[in-house]
Design brief:
heterodimer, A: mainly alpha, globular, B: about 160 residues, mainly alpha, 5 helices
């Protein structure tokens, strides 16, 4: 029993920070990201299965929880909570504005495009890993990645035009 | 070249450019610029997961224990033991009921089969009747004969 628990502890240590980051990038709220990360592991216990690809399995649970959350609570919090007092206040403000803008435009993407963009460019997943997480082919992942980035480019240029 | 084929080529070109940055077509360069802007989101706050990890492991331990218990219950040996314990308990209950005394507050509904007592009766209230019954076989006493007087005899006159 101790072996099983230590194994679960290792799984938690390995994947919980990554799941947290993924949820945080999608929702932009630290406490919420921690809560949903806990929920991912509780559902993992409930599942009583040994998935072939644990990483994909856990991220799929996280994705489903995010989709459920967004269905019930919209829109996403866009405040970035990282504050470093050593930063130059002007530079810090610029970064905050840029982060808020990026979160805003990501939230406007289709859910599967959001998932691919976050996993690929913020979590560093390979196309094959993303394919396992979202249950689609590698070709579909490439297409979602391309369309997601193109939509982001258009949304960002539209934001710039609106600001002017 | 069809539009779909063109997009597929761009997807492949983007994928190649992401894997090996270098010279890229203008459209792909725009997308790579978006990727660079996404990196502003990369730093995330350090999660506070230690307490949640403890809760997760406690939950896992509880579930493992309850799962083992249910596995044990469904073993055939365990079921046999349970049946034996129930039988012993029922037997003990019957035994206790047989010895139970009637008290004003508790009345046992159990009616035990009548059993013979080993004690012999100390008196026989119908003994007399029995004797009378048995007297049928006793020879009845004959009536005492009165002295016989001849029919035509004259009475004796005593003077």
């Amino acid at each position: 029993m101790d072996d099983a628990l230590s194994g679960l502890g290792e799984i938690y240590d390995t994947f919980a920070p990554r799941i947290f980051r993924y949820v945080y990038h999608r929702l932009g709220d630290q406490t919420l990201a921690e809560d949903l990360t806990s929920e991912v592991f509780i559902r993992f216990l409930d599942a009583r299965t040994s998935p072939e690809h644990l990483s994909g399995f856990l991220f799929r649970i996280a994705h489903n929880l995010i989709v459920d959350y967004l269905r019930r609570h919209h829109p996403v919090r866009l405040v970035n909570e990282i504050h470093d007092p050593r930063d130059d206040p002007v530079r810090h403000a610029e970064i905050e504005i840029e982060r808020a803008r990026m979160r805003r435009v990501i939230a406007r993407l289709a859910p599967d495009q959001q998932q691919v963009i976050v996993l690929k460019f913020l979590e560093g997943f390979s196309n094959e890993e993303i394919a396992r997480v979202i249950g689609k082919s590698v070709g579909a992942v490439k297409a979602l990645q391309f369309r997601g980035l193109a939509t982001l480019r258009d949304l960002l240029s539209g934001e710039v035009r609106n600001e002017r | 070249m069809s539009g779909e084929q063109n997009i597929r080529d761009l997807e492949s070109e983007l994928d190649a450019a992401l894997a090996k940055p270098g010279h890229a077509a203008p459209e792909i360069a725009d997308l790579l610029a978006v990727v660079n802007r996404l990196q502003t989101l990369t730093p995330t706050p350090a999660p506070n997961l230690a307490k949640r990890k403890r809760e997760f492991l406690n939950l896992a331990a509880r579930r493992t224990a309850s799962r083992r218990m249910s596995q044990m219950i469904w073993r055939p040996g365990f079921a046999l033991i349970v049946v034996l314990v129930v039988l012993i308990a029922v037997g003990a209950q019957i035994g206790l009921s047989n010895q139970a005394t009637l008290s004003p507050t508790t009345i046992s509904t159990f009616t035990a089969a009548p059993t013979k007592t080993a004690m012999a009766p100390t008196f026989t209230p119908m003994a007399g009747a029995l004797r009378a019954t048995e007297a049928r076989h006793v020879v009845e006493p004959k009536p005492v004969p009165t002295p016989a007087r001849p029919f035509n005899s004259t009475p004796v006159v005593f003077r």
